[in-house]
Write a structure and sequence with these properties.
18 helices; mainly alpha; 53% helix; elongated; single chain; 0% strand
């Protein structure tokens, strides 16, 4: 027995000395040129695939990924954040990307063997020991537009289709960059900016940039803007005249219930009625309270749910909004969103 113990102790000491030599002296060659030892790549890749499959969300959590506006939003984010490493449909990777260890796969190959729920986990979490970063925000719901785009690539998106989706509108300076998503078209996934004032818009951009407001898509978008452009973007969108009418396909009973909720006292003396801050005629006209009239109902539902979860921030009096949303049921949120979406788009001074 003593011999076994001594042998194990000696092996442990030798192992520690070997580890110290590798780390302290630099015996292990970290050069990417020779690559991994035989078998290491297989072990790492197999571990990666099994880890993703074990941790991916359930198939029932996957939303409808066929909405063209959702696919376009994901494509635009991919174009600025991911294309450098994974290229675009019908486009070759650069020589530098191919030389990486491990090399990031071409986008058409990267999506081949994965279901949407797997792609969501990969995009949201990133991959250790590779160049794949995690999503630059805690919330995971805004990963789905990217997954919608990746699913479209898997279904055979062409390079021409990709170019059309990611084209920058022909507008002066950086306006086209922002207008690519926020061009006043109705969309469930992107808010209208023409109904907001400049102070609120700049506050929101700074909140995304600083991480006070969570969105991987917006964090990436704002990071591409120089500081000097924030005022320009805010002022330009604020100068647009809102157009269009309220959504007409909403359930009238739901809209009326939402109106009653928006005008009703909350029951908490510290929390005013929704309309007091957000219109349509606001009695507390702070420039940092957004107008909600004419925003898409789906977008409003998402934002109210984020406030209720405590994962939305970056606004004026954020604690007040979390208090206001805390007691809302799913039905309340749906009704409030329907009411504000039914109103004609308008901005407050």
């Amino acid at each position: 027995m003593k011999t076994v113990v001594r042998t194990l102790a000696a092996l442990a000491v030798l192992g520690a000395l070997g580890g110290a030599a590798v780390v302290g002296i630099g015996l292990y060659n970290v050069s990417a040129q020779p690559g991994h030892f035989p078998g290491v790549s297989w072990v790492l890749h197999t571990t990666y695939r099994n880890s993703v499959r074990l941790r991916a969300p359930d198939a029932g959590d996957v939303p409808d990924l066929t909405d063209p506006a959702m696919i376009e939003l994901g494509a635009r984010h991919y174009d600025t954040a991911c294309r450098t490493c994974h290229a675009a449909p019908d486009q070759a990777r650069s020589a530098t990307m191919v030389a990486m260890v491990p090399a990031p796969p071409h986008i058409s190959d990267a999506v081949k063997d994965w279901e949407p729920r797997h792609m969501h986990w990969i995009v949201h979490n990133g991959i250790k020991m590779s160049g794949m970063p995690h999503w630059p925000a805690e919330r995971s719901d805004d990963v789905w537009p990217v997954v919608a785009f990746l699913s479209a690539v898997k279904s055979g998106m062409s390079g021409v289709e990709y170019a059309e989706l990611t084209a920058i509108p022909q507008q002066d300076g950086l306006r086209g960059y922002c207008a690519g998503c926020h061009d006043i078209r109705p969309s469930d996934h992107v808010p209208r900016l023409d109904i907001q004032n400049a102070a609120y818009l700049k506050m929101s951009m700074l909140a995304y940039r600083d991480g006070a407001r969570q969105s991987g898509i917006m964090a990436q978008a704002v990071s591409k803007l120089p500081e000097s452009a924030l005022d320009e973007m805010a002022n330009w969108f604020a100068s647009q005249t809102p157009s269009g009418s309220g959504a007409g396909s909403l359930d009238p009973d739901l809209v009326m219930r939402g109106r009653d909720l928006a005008y009703a006292a909350s029951g908490d003396p510290d929390v005013p009625a929704c309309r007091a801050c957000h219109g349509p005629e606001a009695s507390e006209a702070s420039p940092f309270f957004p107008s909600l009239s004419g925003q898409p109902a789906a977008y409003l539902r998402t934002q109210l749910d984020l406030w209720r979860q405590g994962t939305r921030g970056g606004g004026a009096r954020s604690n007040l909004m979390q208090q206001a949303a805390d007691g809302l049921s799913d039905a309340d949120i749906a009704a409030l969103a329907a009411f504000f979406a039914s109103l004609p788009p308008s901005k407050r001074d």
